[in-house]
């Protein structure tokens, strides 16, 4: 597991922010396919298929690709629709998560214990 200092995490935010914005937009676009995908899954024993199926699969692929680009550098993607990410870090000798989401200032201001999640965020 890669561990980040606050400064290292802040340096990465501009690059990651762009990817998170793209992920969020792609994820929003999936809404138009939900019912069609359910119907196709229900008919899968009959060959499946759906209108817009290739666009749906392409959108899923792009989300997966961007997510992998972020996770490969050690950052955890927590919520696509909010653009929520965590950077593993060390605080007072234990591993914690530096927490940031789209719409927040350009610097990390929050952290939380691994078990606490977003609801347990505390200001740095």
Rounded mean pLDDT is 90
**Domains, number:** 1
Number of E-type strands: 5
Q: Based on helices, strands and strand pairing, what is the structural class?
A: alpha+beta
- N- to C-terminal distance: 22 Å
- N to C succession of SSEs: HHHEEEEE
Classify the helix fraction into a percent range. 40-55%
State Rg: 18 Å
Write a structural description.
This protein has 124 residues and is α+β, with helices and mostly antiparallel strands. The protein has one domain. It is 42% helix and 21% strand. The chain has three helices and five strands; from the N terminus they run H-H-H-E-E-E-E-E. The chain has a five-stranded antiparallel sheet with strand order 1-2-3-4-5. The model has no long low-confidence stretch (mean pLDDT 90).
In short:
It is built from three helices and five strands, in the order H-H-H-E-E-E-E-E. It has 124 residues and is an alpha+beta fold.
Blueprint of the fold:
Elements: H1 6-29, H2 34-42, H3 53-71, E1 76-79, E2 84-91, E3 94-101, E4 110-113, E5 122-123
Antiparallel strand pairs: 1-2, 2-3, 3-4, 4-5
Helix pairs in contact: 1-3
């Amino acid at each position: 597991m890669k561990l980040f200092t606050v400064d290292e995490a802040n340096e990465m935010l501009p690059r990651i922010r762009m990817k998170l914005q793209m992920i969020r937009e792609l994820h929003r676009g999936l809404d138009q396919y939900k019912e069609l995908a359910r119907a196709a899954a229900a008919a899968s024993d009959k060959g499946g298929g759906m209108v817009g199926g290739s666009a749906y699969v392409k959108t899923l692929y792009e989300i997966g690709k961007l997510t992998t680009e972020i996770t490969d550098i050690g950052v955890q993607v927590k919520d696509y629709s909010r653009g929520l990410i965590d950077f593993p870090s060390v605080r007072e000798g234990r591993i914690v998560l530096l927490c940031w989401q789209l719409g927040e200032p350009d610097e990390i201001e929050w952290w939380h214990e691994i078990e606490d999640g977003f609801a347990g965020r505390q200001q740095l």
